[in-house]
Amino acid sequence: MSEACSNFHFPVPEILENALVKLVPFIIAEHAETFFSGLEDSLFAYLPWGPYATTEDYVNGLIETRVRPDPGMLLFAVFDKASGALAGTIGLLDTSPVNLSTEVAWIITLPAFQRTYVTSNATGLLLHWVLDAPAQGGLGLRRVNWKATTANKASVGVAERMGFRMEGVARWDRVLPEWKTVENGGNGITLREGDRRPNCIGIDVVSLGLCWDEWEDGGRDLVDKVMSRR
């Protein structure tokens, strides 16, 4: 069992894979250094956390303090099977066994593997696991969420290609750290005088959803078609 996901609500498979990529539980000792060595600060532009100065900062600032203690969170390492290289991460957050829901999260595809089949196939494998019925090897959840800042059009585009439906925009939903700039995803609206966090921009967040009935009514086939593209 992975150090990063030993507290997850559901049993975690040792591997999720197809012909192109494989997902394995992120293990700090095996994956952190390699993954961190491929990171660029720009990959954190739209995220409310990061970038990190060292591997230790990444592990302590994200995995040990956020992912590992929370049973609703899970992190996978993504490998490109053609090269054998670690290509990124993907995972889940806000997983609820009561409401049978979760959110796709922690998606960081390293630069060498962007605009390839990696992100779509990693996402597709994760969707199969969470939305397929238990008899098919899945968790049988009813709903999967996807959230992204309105400025992150690439993330929203991936979600829509995978069958997620746009459900709304939460305005001023999050406040980013001081080192994030407006160009990196803020809504660009001037803050009022006397704001409590005047050096921190706010972002509007797009919410998308994919539900079990849509999955059964053509959603699974759509995802499989996207995953088959090279």
TrEMBL record:
Name listed for the protein in its UniProt record: Acyl-CoA N-acyltransferase
Pfam families cross-referenced by the UniProt entry: Acetyltransf_3
PROSITE patterns cross-referenced by the UniProt entry: GNAT
Domain of life per record: Eukaryota
Gene source species: Roridomyces roridus
Gene Ontology terms, MF aspect: protein N-terminal-serine acetyltransferase activity; protein-N-terminal-alanine acetyltransferase activity
Record domain N-acetyltransferase: where: 33-183
